[in-house]
Design a protein that fits this description.
984 residues; eight-stranded antiparallel sheet; alpha+beta; 25% strand; nine-stranded mixed sheet
Length: 984
């Protein structure tokens, strides 16, 4: 529903190159102004306001509000500016959990040095079903306050397990800390900052707390500039395209990090509505924003908002989980530098940026830029001068324009989520470099005021209300819980100044929690609405930083730097890891001493991706336990893998890992005792007092790392094997059970003093049911240990499982470091096949007996880098993948042809991020993700008659005849000893 603003509204976007401003009335542009961004940001905003008011001939007192989008907060982090960042104390409400993965551990070294002040653990937190892990302990909180005082830290963030579902403990803890610390301390709560995902929310909370002092200075400066208009309200635009009161933005600057692309998309949607109002087709709408240095492309939803990214986000190397628009950026802009090498013309990736008027040939400089290619034949005398006439040859111009078209068309194809021609709204001051024909685009709209679409988007910003919580229905249904969440979101929107009559629902997501039997479901709801006419923000004594003397011009604004650094990788959707140290990956050799392999930090990173590929969509993100392993190494400990084939026959091996929900694992971060308690209980049940090594139940995902960590904590080794050679959803789907060996005796433990031992069971099916029932009682996540193994049996298990995962991860890392396609390299090294390259267009999920069953549908993504004969599908085909916690089957669908099964379990079907080769789990499957789906051959044990019965199509109710992928004999993975051992 469009806004009906009677008063004047000013929108401002402070970018790295330009500061744009517009003045609107009833969503009509009255005037606009563009000026270069200066080092004195406050003065720049004052100038922008004065200029646009003058052009509109509007009395300043008639301006109702100013809405500003700014990059200053994210810049402070990207620049790692010590004058703008404070040290932070973190207080976790976690009981016994999360202690193996402390705060700040994975921060880049310099940022960690700037921000890490203190961290402490206290009782508190909630289980997934809402029951407290433990009540708050005021005495523990007062102890933490005393330490914080002694250390002289004034910025504090409180982080509680499942606080987004229930923030009451965080709020109470904040009150206790505030009472103990007294005035002058800044205490925030993570539930107000991030979504579910404990470590990522904590990281966002740390960034936010560190920035708060600086944010108040910035907002106070903006307030000072706006105050000259009279009684005018100030709002700051947020990452999702909605608004925040100025005082709230000062408290939560992290929410404003990435508002620019969203503002641009929102502004483009408004400016183009007249030209697209009579279009009756259902073609996809893309916004292409061409600036001076980069081009941002995003898909526009019917709500007029850009699609949000489903991936976690890295800010200056820090992993966070607040939402940003799903924008694909390329290094192409009006200031992109053009170079001619023989007959080839390249454009970018570097740019003259704001130096266009000084360095460009058209202004007397020496640099050929992309904008000049488009304008060198223009009749405008500004560009028809002796420089352009003499230095830009027609062949150079045509070659450069072809290169611009190629880069843009490839980028648009990556963003499109529908087949057929898209509709493009072209905005941004650099859009003059784009021609009138774009392959794959049926209509190009160049709306009036396209130069300032981002400022228009800021001006039309609305307010929002969100709810992100996990619910367990008790006496209600999920539908009723969802309605309650919608009501709460609306209430929050109204509290933020939203007009109840204009509120609309823009996002709803319900995701069943897998591996639980109590119906737990994650709900996410977002609503938006117009500002209430005449809504006033009350700036009482609770916000002293925006009152009185705070309105005076801050003395340090002249030192604010201009723009975001050129390294766009500093803020990006994250991959599983980034290799930042200077390591020659091709020459790197693992540390092998006899039968022992001592892992390094780089080995752990290889294993992250490798275990993700072998997890075939399940087993959980290993990030928390990866951090725990990282800490063990940095504390001087060893994590050691033992060679499988030399293990003594009488050795005792324990099977350790986790059972339960991967999504719970990412919020109730493991403590120190879940797996070790389960192992000790299983030893007691088995009548053994010691053991020699540990293996995971499955090599996929987090459990491979949990076995490494458990072995380290017992000062033992991990054996280079597992029970599956991949991942399966059931505990009994293992090679051991295939040979008739029972799961029991077994044990589960919650790490908080509760254990349950299962001495015997009628069969392995009953054992699994009993263990999962106990796991649900323990909060849907527990450590697990099953029937111990002797050495003679261990040597018959799947060969070289950790070595295999390491080799896969190394292949992906090598390709990344050499800027090669990691997927092609992986397929070559693993003799796998590419099933499909496409975009996810729908995901369905439901829970049955604790397991997530569903399917994901992909539409074709034309791969212009590969010749058509090598592509496994046509541009009109689609792929349907069924899953039950793990990917089960992949079926090709093409118009006019019968469905064709391309791969089915037990072969390994894995989704990889098309950009960086990172493996994706089923919880990551979201609309619009661009992926490659690959298949690897299963070991012969699983393709035997018995293996297919336990882990093949019929085991999951699929009416499909198994046919293995690839050709030739199966090749067992080599061990690192075979590849890098003595004499290699």
């Amino acid at each position: 529903m469009p806004s009906k603003l009677a008063s004047y509204v000013i929108g401002i976007d402070v970018g790295g190159t330009n500061t744009d401003s517009v003045i609107l009335q009833n969503e009509s542009v009255l005037a606009w102004h563009k000026t270069a961004t200066t080092s004195d940001i406050q003065q720049g905003v004052e100038t922008a306001i004065a200029a646009v008011v003058k052009k509109a001939a509007t009395p300043p007192c008639h301006v109702d509000c100013v809405k500003i989008g700014t990059t200053q907060f994210v810049n402070a982090v990207l620049e790692q500016d010590a004058s703008k960042l404070d040290k932070v104390a973190v207080v976790r409400l976690c009981g016994p959990y999360s202690r193996g993965s402390p705060p700040f551990l994975d921060f880049p070294p310099r940022l960690r040095a700037l921000m890490e002040g203190h961290f402490g653990y206290v009782d508190g937190g909630y289980q997934v079903d809402g029951t407290p892990i433990s009540p708050l302990n005021p005495h523990q909180l007062r102890e933490q306050a005393s330490i914080i005082k002694i250390k002289g830290i004034t910025s504090v963030v409180v982080v509680g397990i499942y606080s987004p579902s229930n923030p009451s403990q965080e709020d109470e803890a904040r009150s206790i800390l505030a009472a103990e610390l007294g005035p002058g301390y800044d205490i925030s709560c993570s539930s107000a900052i991030g979504r579910l995902g404990f470590l990522e929310r904590e990281n966002a909370g740390i960034l936010n707390a560190s920035l708060r002092r600086f944010a108040r200075h910035v907002i106070a400066g903006f307030s000072y500039a706006v105050r000259k208009l009279g009684k005018c309200k100030l709002y700051i635009t947020l990452n999702d395209g909605t608004l925040s009161k100025a005082s709230t933005a000062a408290e939560y600057p992290v929410r404003c990090f990435s508002s620019g692309p969203t503002n641009s998309a929102r502004g483009a949607a408004l400016l183009a509505r007249v030209e697209s109002a009579y279009d009756s087709d259902d073609s996809e709408v893309l916004v292409v924003d061409v600036g001076g240095t980069t081009t941002d492309i995003c898909a526009l939803l019917k709500t007029g908002y850009p699609r949000q990214s489903s991936a976690f986000v890295k800010i200056a190397g820090v992993r966070t989980n607040f939402t940003i628009p799903d924008v694909h950026s390329i290094a192409l802009g009006g200031g992109s530098i053009c170079r001619v090498d023989c007959d080839r013309t390249s454009v970018g990736p570097d740019s003259v940026g704001s130096r266009l008027g000084r360095d460009s040939i058209s202004f007397g400089g020496n640099t050929l830029t992309a904008s000049l290619l488009s304008l060198s034949n223009a009749t405008d005398l500004v560009f028809s001068n002796k420089f352009t006439d003499n230095l830009v040859r027609p062949s150079t111009k045509s070659a450069g324009l072809r290169e611009i078209s190629r880069a843009l068309e490839e980028a648009i194809d990556l963003v499109k989520t529908k087949q057929g021609d898209a509709k493009v709204i072209l905005v941004g001051g650099g859009s003059i470099i784009i021609g009138d024909r774009i392959a794959g685009v049926g209509k190009i709209i160049r709306p009036k005021y396209l130069e300032v679409a981002n400022a228009v988007g800021a001006a039309i910003g609305k307010v929002s209300g969100t709810v992100d919580k996990t619910v367990v229905p008790r006496g209600t249904t999920i539908d009723q819980e969802l309605e309650d969440a919608k009501t709460l979101a609306i209430e929050r929107c109204i509290a933020a100044g939203g007009n109840k009559r204009t509120i609309e629902l823009v996002e709803v997501e319900t995701v069943p929690v897998s591996y639980v039997t109590n119906g737990a479901t994650r709900l996410f709801v977002r609503v938006v609405g117009d500002l209430v006419e005449g809504y006033e923000e009350h700036q009482g004594s609770s916000q002293p930083h925006l009152n009185g003397d705070a309105y005076r011009k801050p003395t340090d604004f002249s030192s604010l730097r201009n723009g975001i650094p050129n390294d766009n990788s500093l803020m990006s959707k994250g991959s599983s890891y980034d290799i930042v140290e200077q390591v020659n990956l091709r020459s790197y050799r693992p540390r092998i001493e006899g039968d022992l392999w001592y892992l390094s930090e780089l080995d752990l990173r290889f294993l992250q991706d490798g275990t993700g590929v072998l997890g075939v969509g399940s087993c959980g993100e290993p990030y928390p336990v990866y951090l725990a392993c990282l800490l063990a190494l940095r504390n001087g400990g060893d994590i050691v893998i033992r060679r499988q084939d030399t293990l003594p026959d009488n050795a005792v091996v324990l099977v350790g890992g986790f059972m339960g929900s991967p999504s719970v694992y990412l919020e109730r971060i493991p403590g120190l005792n879940e797996v070790t308690d389960a192992m000790q209980a299983a030893m007691k049940a088995s009548g053994i007092s010691t053991f020699d090594a540990v293996i995971p139940n499955e090599i996929g995902g987090m459990n491979a790392f949990e076995a490494l960590l458990a072995a380290h904590r017992f000062n033992k080794t991990t054996l280079d094997t597992d029970l599956v050679a991949r991942a399966y959803p059931k505990v009994w789907q293992t090679v051991r059970c295939l040979h008739g060996i029972p799961i029991t005796p077994a044990a589960v433990a919650d790490g908080n003093g509760q254990q349950e031992i299962f001495q015997t069971s009628h069969d392995n099916f009953e054992a699994e049911d009993l263990m999962r029932g106990a796991c649900t009682e323990f909060g849907s996540l527990s450590g697990m240990c099953i029937n111990p193994i002797h050495g003679i049996e261990a040597k018959t298990l799947p060969r070289n499982s950790f070595s295999h995962a390491w080799s896969i991860g190394r292949s992906i890392a090598l390709s990344r470091s050499q800027k090669l396609d990691p997927i092609s390299a992986l397929l070559k090294s693993e003799r796998g096949i590419l099933l499909f390259t496409g975009k996810i267009i729908s995901v369905t999920r439901n829970i049955g007996s604790g397991f997530t069953r569903g399917s994901v549908l992909l539409s074709s993504l034309a791969d212009t880098s590969s010749p058509s004969k090598t592509r496994p599908h046509t541009s009109t085909s689609s792929l349907l993948v069924d899953f039950e916690n793990e990917n089960l089957s992949a079926t090709l669908r093409a118009p006019g042809q019968a469905d064709k099964t391309l791969a089915v379990c037990p072969d390994l079907i894995t989704f990889l991020d098309k950009a960086n080769g990172a493996p994706l789990g089923i919880s990551d499957y979201k609309y619009g993700l661009r992926v490659s789906v690959i298949a690897l051959r299963a070991p012969p044990i699983w393709t035997s008659e018995e293996g297919l019965e336990m882990g093949g199509p019929k085991a999951f109710g699929l009416d499909v005849v198994y046919k293995g992928v690839g050709s030739g004999e199966y090749e067992a993975p080599k061990s690192v000893w075979e590849m890098f051992g003595e004499g290699k």
